[in-house]
Automatic annotation (TrEMBL):
InterPro entries: RadC_JAB, RuvA_2-like, UPF0758, UPF0758_N. Residues 110-181 form the RadC-like JAB domain. The lineage of its organism: Bacteria, Bacillati, Bacillota, Bacilli, Bacillales. Belongs to the UPF0758 family. The gene is radC. Transmembrane segments: none annotated. Gene3D superfamilies: 5' to 3' exonuclease, C-terminal subdomain, Cytidine Deaminase, domain 2. This is RadC. GO terms for molecular function: metallopeptidase activity. It comes from Bhargavaea cecembensis. Keywords: Hydrolase, Metalloprotease, Protease. Residues 10-87 form the UPF0758 domain.
Length: 235
């Protein structure tokens, strides 16, 4: 025998216990995920209250973190969620992602693998595939740009050197950091463990490479040479 959790309608709650009023009185941090989503959705449907609808959105995704990579199509597949409500959720998620980057007038400085991980994790924490990411740095180790060079399968990434060097030359990078993002259950001996994935970093200085040498590498790499990252190994 199973029992469904009863979710009250807004009208059944005391005015002081309704999400908006609680946020005003107690602050946003005091609200549950369900209440925050209910505020974003604003209204329910003829059949369900906004709290019931918010509860179904949460039930649709395995965890709240999955929302940060949800698509419009995925969100609108939840009964009662049309494009307008889905857009409201996506806009809130994107705003949160941008805030989590702690953007400021100064460029982000990489001093250690942990710094690189802190920079990448807001976007990478819930990935379902292996990714090969490159950070491009200036002479002060400040991040000029980050780029996902390749999105692999569940357990491997194939990376062509020409893609890495082409972008590095374009950005006038003094150094680059390779970030290979893999799923937790496929990794063993890498030194940075996060809730959803392991990160392996390789640091490569370009300061001593002349533009001519780099361009030569680009030409050589067009022959089809590539790196394959799979199950902890470069093959």
């Amino acid at each position: 025998m199973t029992f469904d959790l009863y979710v009250p309608k807004i009208s059944e709650l005391h005015v002081a216990d309704r999400p908006r009023e609680r946020l005003i009185r107690q602050g946003a941090e005091s609200l549950s995920n369900q209440e925050l989503i209910a505020i974003l959705l604003r209204t329910g449907t003829r059949q369900e209250s906004v709290l019931q609808l918010a509860n179904r959105v949460l039930a649709f995704f395995d965890k709240i973190q999955d929302l940060q990579h949800a698509t419009l199509e995925e969100i609108t597949s939840v009964k009662g969620i049309g494009e307008a409500k889905a857009v409201q959720l996506l806009a809130a998620v994107e705003l949160g992602r941008r805030l989590s980057r702690k953007q400021s007038t100064e460029r982000y400085v990489i001093r250690s693998p942990e710094d690189a991980a802190a920079y990448l994790m807001p976007d990478m924490a819930s990935l379902q595939q292996e990714n090969f990411v490159v950070l491009f740095l200036n002479v002060k180790n400040e991040v000029l740009h980050s780029s996902t060079i390749f999105i692999g399968s569940l357990n491997s990434s194939i990376v062509h050197p020409r893609e890495v060097f082409r972008e590095a030359v374009k950005r006038s990078a003094a150094a680059i950091i390779f970030g290979h993002i893999g799923m937790k259950n496929q990794w063993r001996n890498y030194n940075l463990l996060y809730p959803q994935c392991y990160i392996n970093f390789a640091f490569f200085l370009m300061a001593k490479l002349s533009l001519k040498v780099v361009m030569s590498l680009l030409v050589l790499s067009t022959a089809g040479s590539h790196l394959v990252f799979t199950n902890n190994k470069v093959v």
